[in-house]
Amino acid sequence: MGLDKKITAIGFIGTGVMGKSMARHLLDAGFELFVYNRSKEKAEELLAKGAKWAVSPGELAKKADVIISIVGYPQDVEEVYLGKDGVVVNAKEGTYLIDMTTSTPSLAEKIYHAAKSKGLKALDAPVSGGDIGARDAKLAIMAGGDEEDFREMKQIFDLLGTNVVYQGPAGSGQHTKMCNQIAIASNMIGVTEAIVYAKKAGLNPETVLKSISTGAAGSWSLSNLAPRMVKGDFEPGFFIKHFIKDMKIALEEAKRMDMEVPGLSLAESLYEKLSRDGEENSGTQALYKYWK
Questions:
Q1: Is 177 a catalytic residue?
Q2: Cα distance between residue 269 and residue 291, in whole Å
Q3: Where in the sequence is the domain holding 234, given as residue range(s)?
Q4: Where does residue 225 fall: left (phi above 0), alpha (psi -120 to 50 degrees), or beta otherwise?
Q5: Looking at 110, 177, 245, 292, which residue is catalytic?
Q6: Is there a single domain that holds both residue 52 and residue 132?
């Protein structure tokens, strides 16, 4: 049974680079939408389109039947859900909580159990696809939690992404996102090295991309981020500072599992250097600047 848009209110927390586009899709679908962001100006575009402002996560939670968040760091997620004026203590029984931030699997499990004790239903559902995927509603969404809750929320997920997969119990979505980030980390090194090599060899990088993007070397990063490198466009579709956060989570989880991750470790060290050089708010394609 689908959600009735006439009586279902959605609360959205985090209207940054990706969240703003995701929230807009929900508005366009006809849902009543409440929004909260630490800086209200980042929500002004949504407010102009009909969204309603909430002054805190707690106030938003009292008004919404489904609450979605995509914020910066695990500590932000914990404050939003488990803080004194957070979601869990203020949400109505039966409310669905969907955290789409890339966060730690252990925190996803903690929120799940806290929610369940209050009669709430929590899913961890991080996403991949960056600003383009969010804008075009073509995100990959990897979900953890109770499968019945996932099925109930599938209608909403389908408004935001085209590859929506249930991965398993609480924390499974976050573990899957770590697999995603590990794959991207080493790939970004290869993509960047290829562009630098093409330039040093006297080739036209744009022409090179026409040949290699559709072959065995093809990847999302090669198709979407390499052209930005070539153009010198380092605006964030995904912030370096957030990618470093994700890689640190993956490194910690790998260490806990006694697993070596040399590719991930190298990528994290390169991005850390860029961050120290003042590039933390650039997009991940600014890895190109390491070779400049």
A1: yes
A2: 14
A3: 175-291
A4: alpha
A5: 177
A6: yes
